[in-house]
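Feature request disguised as a bug: please show the residue count (416) next to COG0553: Superfamily II DNA/RNA helicases, SNF2 family in the output. Example input:
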Amino acid sequence: MSRQGKTNIVTPASLRTNIKDSIDKFKLPKKDTSVYSFEGATKANLSGDTLIVDEAHRLGDSTSGRSKSLVEAAKRHKRVILLTGSPIRNNPSEIAPLANMVGIDKAYAPLSRKNFDNKYIGKKKEKRSFMDFVKGVKPGTITYIKNKDALKKNFSNSIDKYMPSKDYYPDVIEKTHSIPMSDSQHKLYKNLVDNTNSDVVYKIGNNRPMTPTERANANTFLSAARILSNSEKPFGGVNITPKVKAIADSVTDKPSKNVVYSSFLDGGLNSLSEELKHRNHPHQIYNGSLNDKEKKAIIDKYNKSKTSTLLISGAGAEGLDLKGTRNMHIMEPHWNSARINQVIGRGARFKSHTHLPKEEQNVTVRHYLSAIPNKSVGVLGKLLHKKPKVGADEYMTGLSKRKEELNQEFLNAITG
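Example output, currently without the count:
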């Protein structure tokens, strides 16, 4: 690295220790290498020979200060290396800042989300059913990639496709568990429904795409419903939810290494922690309130144990290198599949299971969804084989899958 001149490394603040440890491990010249958090890099007016950005997907919002700053910083470096396992999370436009940074002398895509979408994202209205007309429901919007030939031409000869061998990675087995709400939980859920726009409720219950206005109105309901799927307490309830009970049952069923992820503390990990304490099951919580020393101690203890239970929040979705994880439990769906894939990547890593017997070199990932109970359809509904309405967890899962399909369609277009 000394022969390569000045190197600036940008990484999330929580991962700076990891980078500095790697610099020491490989005996890199510290005087030629500087490590910045995203916030620090934004203020530093960086310039040098090589710019390396870890977790580069954080630059996807081209309107953010950090993205604007580092796009400009890239122009003041001879080489730019961006590291990420998920270059696109919510929308294909997130590729624009990244592509333009590594292109340096070439603008691959419009930085403006509006201009990008106008050029590459097509929109069409879904077909309306008879009941839509009766209820006066507006047709939802379906998005797709357009101008694929122009996309492919613009990115041609600029992308190499290489799939690494899976020989040293554990197998990942994914399962989905749909857990019916309890009576008390369903009652609280109906209270949320009663205070939500009726068109939004109709679209969610029937798993239908929304208009842009409906999507904006749905955010509050979906966020609250995801919390309620884990815990009644934030809504005045007192009972443990069936989902938390199911996760606790699985974690305590037999000795192994378990990782549980939730985006929420009070409406997620803390509820599970209370139940595990009640069962005298040892566990640790990894969240953003811990300092670097505390975080390192928790991960070291987990990796050295043969059986352990680790609860992680969003702070643990990036940068963790967990060894020998056999089970991962995803408490609720996320707005995008990329976040969940990142979490899974904490436990299914390169050589993370090679110390285990061959039959144990796998990770079972369990996705938990709270579902509307069957009895909500009534006696007549059961006789007519009527299915219960789609719950918020199930709708969120479908929403994130549709985003993933659009993002993959875009990636397929630019990679040929």
